[in-house]
Amino acid sequence: MSSTRRRVGVLALQGDFREHLAALRACEVEGVPIRLAADLEAVDALILPGGESTTMAHLMEPTLKQSIQQRAAAGMPVLGTCAGMILMAREIADGRPDQEPLKLMDIGVRRNAYGRQIDSFEADVASPAIGGSAPAVFIRAPQLTQHSPDVEELARHGDQIVAIKQGNRLALAFHPELTPDRRWHQYFLSLNGETR
Amino acid sequence: MTEGSEKVNDRKGTWKVKAGLAEMLKGGVIMDVVTAEQARIAEDAGAVAVMALERVPADIRREGGVARMSDPGLITAIIEAVTIPVMAKCRIGHFVEAQILQSLGVDYIDESEVLTPADEEHHINKHVFKVPFVCGCRDLGEALRRIAEGAAMIRTKGEAGTGNVVEAVRHMRAVTSAIRKLQGAGPEELVMEAKRIGASGDLLEETARLGRLPVVNFAAGGIATPADAALMMQLGCDGIFVGSGIFKAENPSARAKAIVAATTYFDRPDILADASKSLGKAMRGLEIGAIPQEELLAGRGW
Predict the structure, then answer these.
(1) Which of A52, A69, B172, B197 is the most exposed place for a label (fewest CB within 10 A)?
(2) pTM of the model
(3) What Å distances lie between residue B5 and A109, A158, B8, B10, B11, CA to CA?
(4) Which domains does chain A have, with CATH numbers?
């Protein structure tokens, strides 16, 4: 949307960060893998990918965690998909006691809420944010358990809210990065960030 | 859980869903565990998944006899102990063991040469299952035959239970060098190469186009140290299986954490040095040449 050259970080501790980097390339935006706090200085926005949220939380250095929280507080847009949505939550149900999330959105989530892998599924999810319906892949996906009033619902699947936005923070319970449809990434890139 | 409110447009057990879980495991470590307590230690250390087993490969190798699918009671106890995905092994060709594992709710099935094969000509037709499968390979042809049968994830065979990484390196290099040779090959050359290595032409063509296997490829079989894990990652694999290497070592928890860190920071020798400090003794390990030919596991599979 914006014509200014942007660099978008993708948390690259574990998970499908390669697919998010490829999605950014398809959107003609430079993606930067983020593993340490210093890596974050070079980017204007951040994607928290899919993967195992417990593993990512375990690998996230305290300095990186603080930097993400500070940059997000200063207005950096953040997108979380699946495990990334779990990391952005304020509260995690059925998580692990040592799994302290980033608390970037006023939401509660339940991990693996649809059941085990044989209950993972593909579906089409419609949202005004992307001007229609797009394929969505739900893999051991989380569900929203609660949210504050200023969290905006962007999409539903059945009786579940599966896409939400709070300010310039976007969380998806599914994986748009596993499909060739780039509209969710384009929507994220259209969210305004901090002025640096 | 959804209570009978299954949506009509939900598509379960699709290829994308099966291969997709493997994508989520990338950059992670999958650890063999034989008790619920070990499974919790693995999860605490940052494992992306655990492999539920009755005996780790080093013990299977030592004790001999027919190695079969684990007791469903043990697998269920491990499923209940952790929140990360749980994998379990069935024998090559033993589709009923696979049916049982699927009904237990395991998240991935490893049709594994570590167990005694049940069929000396065929592997399982994995397409008919909703649960995804991972299979071992020694070279590109074997990897593509398993994918043709429906494997949604591949791993090197290595030589399980040895604590010796040399076979995993051999198998990883065999796959990557075979893929490199496809670059620039003409369509007629790909047809003959597919025939030569015993692979489907379509899958070989896809591999050539992608410059990598069409599914996620992990390293397995003999990884015992953080440096071993980083070596396999630098050779181009997507993640790591550690079998006997953790719970046969002196300090399993510290070693597990170090191997997890080494898999993420595989290209940072400074971080690897730090992670490798004071881990206690690694498993003792075996030299491959000292193992009688008939006891080598990697030759199982067709």
Answers:
(1) A69
(2) 0.95
(3) 20, 8, 9, 11, 14
(4) 7-190 (3.40.50.880)
